[in-house]
Amino acid sequence: MRVAVISDIHSNLAALEAVLADAGAVDETWCLGDVVGYGPQPNECIDLLHTREPDLVCVAGNHDWAALGLLDTADFNPDAERAALWTREQVTAASRTYLESLPQAVPQGDFTLVHGSPRDPIREYLISADVARSNFALLGTRYCFVGHSHHPFVFVEAGDARAMPELQAPLAGGAAALGERRLFINPGSVGQPRDGNPKASFLILDTDKHTIEHRRVEYAVKVTQRLMQEARLPERLSRRLGYGV
Ligand code: ZN
Fold first, then answer.
1. Ligand 1 midpoint to CA 159 (Å)
2. Ligand 1: distance of its center to the CA of 5 in Å?
3. Which one of 68, 126, 135, 170 has the fewest CB atoms closer than 10 angstroms to its CB?
4. What span, in angstroms and rounded, lies between the C-alpha atoms of 226 and 155?
5. By the 8 A CB rule, do 67 and 73 touch?
6. pLDDT single digits (tens) 22-43
7. What is the dihedral of CA 149, 112, 1, 55, to 10 degrees?
8. From the CA of 181, how far away is ligand 1's center (Å)?
9. What's the CA gap between 81 and 38, in Å, rounded?
10. DSSP state of 17
C-alpha cells in the first residue's frame, strides 16, 4: 500500500494541492492534524481533504481544537492567536462538524498517528531525545507518525531502551528502509515549513516495500501570501512562508 503522509496543512490550499499532485496515485492519505490555523483557506483545505474519503485518516491538532474553541488560545503567540480567532469565525458548520469528528490518535497496523505525541496527542512537542525516549515507553506500535513541530525528522529508538534515541535528518531523495528499530517519524509541514526550506514537506510510505520517502514540493507561495493579506491575517505569518521559518 502506498500512503501519502501529510501534516500541518494550516489552511494553505496552494501547498496542499501541490503536495497531493506530487504524491500522485496513493491508496491512502494519512493526515497528522493542524488542517487549519495560520493560513487563509480553512474550508477549502477541509473540502479538498474530504475528496480523499474514504481512504483518508486524519487526527486532530492543537490549531484544529483552537478553531473549535476546545483549546485556550492564550498560550498561542499573538499572531497565532489572531489567526486562530479569525479561523474560528471563518469555519462553516460543515467544517466544524468535520474538525469535531477528528480523533486524537489512530492506530493503523504497525503505525500510530498523532499530532503531538502518544503521551499528549494535542499539545506535546516531540522534538528532543529525552521526550522521544519517554514516549517510546508509551507507544503501542512499532512506528509512530507525529507532526506539530513542522520539522521533518526521525527519532530511532536505541537498542537499550534506557539509552537516548538517535535523531536523524530525513534522507534527501529516494526511499529509505524503515528498519527494525522503533521510530518516531515527522513528515514536516505542508503549509508552513519551519526548517529553513519554504517548499512543502511530506512523506510517501510504502507498506509493502517497508520504506519512507521524504519529499519537498514547490508551490505558489505568493498566492497564499496574497490571500493572507486580503484576509488581513498577520503580516509576519505571511512573510515567514517565503523563508520556510
Ligand atoms: Zn502546526
1. 31
2. 15
3. 68
4. 36
5. no
6. 999 999 999 999 999 999 999 9
7. -80
8. 27
9. 9
10. H
* pLDDT level of residue 242 (50, 70, 90 thresholds): very high
Q: For residue 9, give the C-alpha cell.
A: 496543512
Rounded distance from Cα 16 to ligand 1 centre (Å):
14
**Three-class SS state of 201:** strand
DSSP summary character for residue 74? G
Ligand 1: distance of its center to the CA of 182 in Å? 24
85: cell is 480567532
Number of neighbours of residue 137 by Cβ within 10 angstroms: 11
Beta-carbon neighbours within 5 Å of ion ligand 1: 8, 34
pLDDT at 172: 65
Q: Which domains does the chain have, with CATH numbers?
A: 2-240 (3.60.21.10)
C-alpha cell at 189: 509541514
Q: What gap in Å lies between CA 42 and CA 87, rounded to an integer?
A: 7
Strand 143-145 relative to strand 111-114, pairing: parallel
Residues 150-167 have pLDDT tens digits of 999 999 999 887 889 999
- Sign of the CA dihedral with 216 first, then 205, 63, and 128 last: negative
What the block records as the C-alpha cell of 239 is: 512573510
Residue 23 DSSP one-character state: H
**Residue 80 region, left (φ>0) first, then alpha (ψ -120 to 50), else beta?**
alpha
